[in-house]
Design goal:
Elements: H1 6-14, H2 17-36, H3 43-55, E1 59-60, H4 61-68, H5 72-84, E2 88-92, E3 100-104, H6 106-126, H7 132-154
Antiparallel strand pairs: 1-3, 2-3
Helix pairs in contact: 2-6, 3-4, 4-5
């Protein structure tokens, strides 16, 4: 990327907070995407694997879609691709024959370990120069803004 000049910096400082937060999210995702692409993973694929790791292995497709905050239909293509890469398998739920469970394969578990190392490295680089106190304060502020936004949606 090109170095930013002072007019770029001034422009960014004039952006509303919501735009800067959105930009931060996009930039962080771009850094993660670049780090994970050598593993053969696009953003939707690594996001689905990471969420599967967080929610627990062998969860329903519907639960995974809800965790990713996307429609199930949007997730299906990604799951097909992950299945083709042999990183997941889908099985029929024993309790509900209509539901399909998403489960990691051994290859999927291996990729997740590699992802974890790379994601933590990205986090370390992106957050470099910030103290632990600054990070805790930032996390508190982000959480408070999120709670406020959720409250507005309830009204």
């Amino acid at each position: 990327m090109n170095a930013m000049n002072s007019s770029d910096t001034q422009h960014l400082q004039n952006l509303p907070l919501a735009e800067r937060l959105g930009r931060l999210t996009r930039l962080w995702r771009m850094v993660a995407d670049a780090e994970l692409s050598p593993l053969g993973l696009t953003h939707p694929r690594w996001s689905a694997l990471w969420k599967l790791r967080q929610l627990g292995d062998c969860i329903s497709q519907k639960c995974l879609a809800e965790g990713l905050e996307i429609e199930l239909s949007s997730l299906m293509r990604t799951l097909n691709q992950l299945e083709q890469q042999q990183l997941i398998i889908r099985k029929t739920c024993p309790n509900d024959k209509r539901a399909r469970l998403v489960c990691l394969t051994k290859e999927g578990e291996t990729i997740l370990k590699q992802m974890e190392t790379r994601i933590f490295d990205v986090r370390k680089k992106v957050l470099s120069g910030l103290s632990e106190q600054q990070l805790q304060e930032f996390e508190f502020v982000v959480e408070q803004i999120s709670r406020n936004a959720l409250e507005q949606l309830k009204e």
